[in-house]
Structure prediction request, 377 residues.
Amino acid sequence: MYKDLQQQLPTTGGDVDWQGLLDLIPSLSALAATPQDPVYHAEGDVWTHTRMVCGELMKMPDFQTAGVERRFVLFYSCLLHDIGKPACTETTPEGRITSRGHSRIGAIDARVLLWRAGVPFDLREQICRIIATHQLPFYVLDGHRSGLAPEFIVRKLSWEVCIRDLVTVAKADTLGRINAGASAAWDNTELFAELAREDGCFDVPRTFPDAATRMRYFLSEGKNSPDHPFFTEPGSAVTVLSGLPASGKDTWVQKHGAGRAVVSFDEAREELGVKHGTAAEGKAVHLVIDRARELLRRKAPFIWNATNLSAQMRQKTLDLLYSYGAQVEIVYLENEEKTIKGRNNKRDTSLTNAAIDRMLHKWEVPLPSEAHTVIYL
Prediction:
């Protein structure tokens, strides 16, 4: 299917085969039945808006001069940027239409869709990261709801997404709608881009003296200097594994564990006789955390072997590790769906393939900003 998506990529100046795209990605059809608040989208439903956004993108010099792979990323980022709206759209008691959370949900939906289509990992994740953050350029300069400084947001974001591509998609999103406030969103996006240019992170991640300084800056939410080396006594060196079940984490431990201690939810469940999804699973969680704390207190190196699939669940693990001053490496492993489910069928596990399908709705690939080192396998 990846080849089909490539074939549907419009050439510069060419037309878009909308029906062909609907045939390839049936979930796009739900966009036509998804309304939008006329205050922000007087053009109508989400599918109308999506086609307008893609049309505006194709007029932009940044798209027309891009190489094939970058045009693939930009076009499918625009095509899928609101793919999460059907699941998130609701009407308030006051009659307003909202789609809160559609960027995050849309990124997950796009990840599953493009994974099943066989889109290469790097291209897929560029698209998903743009979808997850596509609204940020509109309001970071006006005051992000987090209260964080715009400079901090831009610097951290540059480690998560190519800001140049994000700005291009945001501009197309602004132009591809009928909205009295579109000019303000455009101006904010321009200022957002200028801030990134001034800080040297428009096309590349923001530079830091070293990984420890970068992580201290991110963890302090910008309270530490990004330019002066941060020195601290190192704690445990911890490798955090991440990936869907049966993606190869146990095999990685066997090949690369080098005698290090391993904390594992699967092993804790087996030790306690606990099955996936039962109320008693909490006992296994407590056992793993207690063992991790003991290793962290001794500053011993170890491996944390778990799915760590969603950003929220991964953050709980990382917060614990960073509270002890650990140096963290995330190793993310991935495989094709048929391989994962085939392996899972052969394992002695209480986790079913249907449960793996449910886990896909929480699938967020680790970002480079989450650890001192992030390795994608």
Summary: The chain has two domains: 2-198, 237-376. The beta strands are 90-91, 97-98, 237-242, 261-264, 302-305, 327-332, 373-376. Residues 50 and 79 are 6 Å apart (CA to CA).
